[in-house]
Write a structure and sequence with these properties.
With 153 residues, the chain is an alpha+beta fold. The protein contains five helices and four strands, in the order H-H-H-E-H-E-E-H-E.
């Protein structure tokens, strides 16, 4: 674990506030030279504090109007249930996120579909053919009220 000093905290806060800001603008905002700012960002990347700069795609603009979260409980009587299920779920192109949990729900799949008909096809033809499913609960996304990776630093 790396403990951020005050300068690093300010820099990370500015990166979270405006991930598209270039090094020069970040350097101005935190009060350091462009070169020093670039070195500090590289150091934070090397330490794994900053894992990368990501872009976000608006899937609706590409025709994917429906997002469904499937909470799946697996039949864990098979020792390889998680590994086999996850390896097969990875092959479904409309699955854009896979998470595992401790508790009643074992796996969550996030699915993007063009519309309800497309989702039904994915669900019937691909999801229900995944191995070791004991129970599935579908949650259809209506709206994102808050979504943020920003934490108070």
């Amino acid at each position: 674990m790396h403990v951020l000093n005050n300068l690093e905290k300010r820099l990370v806060r500015h990166i979270m506030d405006d991930p598209d800001a270039g090094t020069q603008l970040l350097a101005e905002r935190v009060g350091m030279s462009n070169t020093a700012c670039w070195r500090k960002i590289e150091k934070l990347q090397d330490l794994g504090v900053i894992k990368g700069f990501i872009f976000e795609i608006d899937w609706k603009k590409l025709g994917y109007e429906l997002e469904v979260s499937l909470r799946i409980t697996l039949d864990k009587t098979q020792s390889d249930a998680f590994e086999v299920f996850i390896s097969r779920a990875r092959l479904i192109s409309e699955v854009n996120e896979i998470q595992t949990f401790l508790g009643r729900v074992d796996v969550r799949l996030n699915i993007l579909a063009r519309d309800l008909t497309h989702y039904q096809s994915i669900y019937r033809d691909q999801i229900l053919n995944l191995p070791y499913i004991a129970e599935v609960e579908a949650l259809m996304l209506i709206s994102n009220i808050k979504r943020s990776d920003v934490l108070p630093i």
